[in-house]
Design a protein that fits this description.
The structure is a homodimer. The first copy, chain A, is built from 15 helices and 23 strands. The first copy, chain A, has helices at about 1-10, 20-30, 45-65, 80, 85-90, 115-125, 170-190, 240-245, 270-275, 305-315, 330-340, 350-355, 380-405, 410-420, 435-445, and strands spanning about 30-35, 40-45, 70, 75, 95-100, 105-110, 135-145, 160-170, 200, 215-220, 225-235, 245-250, 255, 260-265, 295-300, 325, 345-350, 360-365, 370-375, 405, 425-430, 445-450, 470-475. In chain A, a hairpin with a 5-residue loop joins strand 10 (about 215-220) and strand 11 (about 225-235). Chains A and B meet through strand 2, helix 3, strand 3, strand 4 and strand 5 of A and strand 2, helix 3, strand 3, strand 4 and strand 5 of B.
Chain lengths: ~475, ~475
């Protein structure tokens, strides 16, 4: 049990230093290792397995809504990046430039894609001719690069993995419908799979994507009261279509511009999982994304029949869950800590006394509650427990989010709240960017979104006191 | 039917110009589109869906053999690339260099990974300490970049998608076992899934991977008699371990170097599928990788009950196969050509007369054979047919490969054969690189592999006439 203690003690408590706690968890749970490349991370097997589960579920949702996967080049010629003015201004300062191929200097430098709007537009201009070619509902899974100054694993890295959906539609209405549809896909995924409740809304013009007509977002709240932008969906209108000349002949034989959208979700959601569900013993993973849902730990494994029974249980459970047995020569207490650190939802202990009584001990990672179950009903109980944990994590996260969501009517109140009890602040806004800037300057909080579900908190802007009709979610953000 | 003709006529016959036929197929089957980035291709939905099927099957085989997926950075600092001498000499001339991040010039340039041995080694040096940490059985799916002068879709592009396995072992024996195990995984995958027969063997020293102790390969033969290196598996010995100082403490408390392997397969296998199975009507896809296994074409679909029945059939078949219905307003003949071009294994036609007789017409893409089947046994018949096509394609490809495999005892014979009837040439080799060079110079053929299954063709080297014990497969290669 000495080993057990040691492993736990190595983590900083989240109340002492949340940032250090986060760093400790990503390392000790073996999600990530730093690399020799500044700002880039190595995603280790356990971290990558979470990403694979995220991918698999999201990809099925994309396909169920009619999307197809493609793969675009990772390079964008400078001239192509420059075709849409706002877009290039937004991204050019933070891209990596390839200037040489082998020994030869390139005549035109290439940037490593920070996002692929320009490549998709270039492609769409080539393949869209008639209304029969629409809609185009494409997605790609890839890595992108943004030259960030300060980086943190999963949350902000120079290179990250993501998916980017890019669609083209005949009408503005269809594009808007797609934009909201995919925002809802993200929101449902976050709640149903990651057990992370989100606020859905529109970004202010200041915060919208470079080149978009409107950006929609889902925002989640971390344990430390900071907000995390968790997925965005952009309606481009026909701006890119004009810049790239993407036109089609409609049924009425008229040439028309297409209307486009894009939407993305990234490996930063692994950071969200850590910061929403984790505790001072490490990760806590919702069963639906956990690489390992049940770990079987034999107790007194040297005694006759224990390993045999433990393996039999493992075999039985592997038909209904992702399960492994740890029969290594480490002490059980050490193993307990290790799988707690890794956030495995259920630990199953089986020892000689349990075998005698035809039972096993199940321990929940989230509540640490112990349940003694008969081996005759093991499959039912484990299935039930995993569902219960999944549900419980969402409820707990929602309660936490709600407990950290405040209202402010005046700027003083706003400032006091954000400093003393960080979280989401609901406050009215007149719509003027000057007030948005002022709030950021005074409080460090940015507008997270104008939520779809509005509430009338007052009729005055929290900043200037002018007439305000929009309630905005504000917060300090990752 | 005029449209039908037109679509087919647009393809060059493979006997007239094989290279042009290939280019026509990749474009017309909508596998690939050229991009604004020189040497890079856009993999379109139909092409990418083939890759997804390849990935899914291979990935399951990797996991079944104990491998885990990870993700490494896409950049390699110059100093890291230079750590292993032969490796850097092999790759430095063909890498893309990032020299600027945003506006800032980098103090050390980064190459875009052409392969990731150096990154894995760097990581292994950090995480391997004890024999308990071994073996490490890692794989990653990613894209890599090699600055090629001339490119062809799937076969040779500046950027391509692949998987690269990288493993570290305690002993030389384990590393050798892994190297051969993964070569066999590739060979079985090619035969069982892609229906492509391969020759397994070792590369000569001249042809081995930069930095490897031994490279093993699977070689397949295309319709035009050219060879395609289809997968390679390298045994690195402890060369990289010395260069990167990857040591572990063994059970006997001694510090030892690890032994490593790497192995890769790429999107070029889509090129192999085209060139092994395709014909003058386009692609022919083995059912196991076909994005679409059955296409349902309603005949006289405006007549009452036809669409209804066709949809009912589609629903039934979608439980056992990847199926879609094409009820667009194109002529049936046009649709036939389109799905032939795309290589869909089975076409199902259903019209008013069929409905009357409670039957459907199944047409095989490979042999164009028509089968009339009762709707009562549709599922069984389709399942059977798909299996039969899968098996038949492998047999046909094997027969083709065998018919294009020759023997040569003298260099004259070798030259005459390779020029008149391109294919694999089996010939003896003394082991001297000078003869290998001479053969290439005289015939354009390179050594493909020293096959595991040896045959004694003569006891003299085909080139110098000296004593020869090794039979080598030679061929002109992609």
């Amino acid at each position: 049990m000495a080993n057990d203690k040691k492993l736990v003690e190595e983590i900083t408590s989240m109340n002492v230093d949340f940032a250090q706690w986060y760093t400790d968890v990503v390392k000790k749970a073996e999600l990530v290792e730093y690399s020799s490349v500044r700002g880039c991370m190595i995603i280790r097997p356990y971290g990558y397995a979470i990403w694979e589960n995220i991918q698999k579920d999201l990809d099925a949702r994309f396909k169920a809504t009619g999307h197809e996967n493609v793969y675009m080049p990772m390079f964008i010629p400078e001239s192509l990046l420059q075709k849409e003015k706002e877009h290039v201004e937004g991204f050019a300062p933070e891209v990596a430039w390839v200037t040489h191929g082998g020994a030869e200097k390139l005549t035109e430098k290439l940037c490593v894609r920070p996002t692929s709007e320009t490549l998709f537009c270039d492609h769409y201009a080539n393949i869209i001719h008639s209304y029969r070619d629409l809609p185009k509902l494409y997605n790609q899974w890839c890595s992108v690069v943004r030259w960030e100054k300060t980086t943190r694993p999963f949350l902000r890295t120079m290179e990250f993995l993501w998916q980017e959906g890019h669609t083209a539609h005949a009408t503005a209405e269809e594009a808007q419908e797609e934009t909201i549809k995919m925002l809802n896909v993200y929101a449902n995924f976050c709640e149903e799979v990651l057990a992370i409740p989100v606020v859905k809304g529109r970004k202010t013009d200041k915060e919208k994507f470079a080149g978009a007509k409107a950006t929609y977002t889902i925002e989640s709240l971390m344990h430390d009261g900071k907000a995390l932008q968790s997925g965005t969906s952009h309606n481009f209108g026909d701006g890119f279509a004009h810049a790239f000349d993407i036109q089609y002949t409609d049924k009425d034989n008229q040439l028309k511009y297409v209307h486009q959208t894009s939407w993305g979700m990234t490996t930063r959601m692994i950071g969200a999982l850590i910061m929403v569900h984790g505790d001072d013993s490490g990760l806590v993973l919702p069963p639906m994304v956990a690489p390992l849902q049940v770990v079987v730990i034999p107790i007194a494994q040297h005694k006759e029949g224990v390993l045999e029974k433990a393996n039999e249980i493992k075999e039985r459970l592997s038909r209904i869950a992702r399960v492994k047995i740890d029969d290594s020569d480490k002490m059980p207490g050490w193993k307990f800590s290790e799988y707690e650190m890794k956030g495995v939802p259920v630990r199953l202990e089986i020892g000689p006394k349990d075998i005698e009584k035809n039972q096993a001990v199940l321990v929940r990672r989230d509540s640490r509650e112990k349940l003694i179950v008969s081996l005759d009903e093991l499959e039912e109980k484990v299935t039930e427990l995993l569902k219960d944990i999944q549900k419980g994590l969402l409820e707990k996260a929602r309660a936490l989010r709600d407990s950290k969501t405040y209202r402010a009517v005046t700027l003083d109140e706003f400032e006091k709240t954000i400093n003393e009890t960080p979280g989401f602040i609901k406050a009215m806004w007149c719509g003027d960017q000057k007030c948005e800037d002022m709030i950021k300057e005074k409080t460090g909080a940015t507008s997270r979104c104008i939520p779809f579900e509005q509430e009338n908190i007052s009729d005055k802007c929290v900043c200037c006191g002018g007439k305000a009709e929009k309630m905005v979610f504000w917060g300090k953000a990752y």
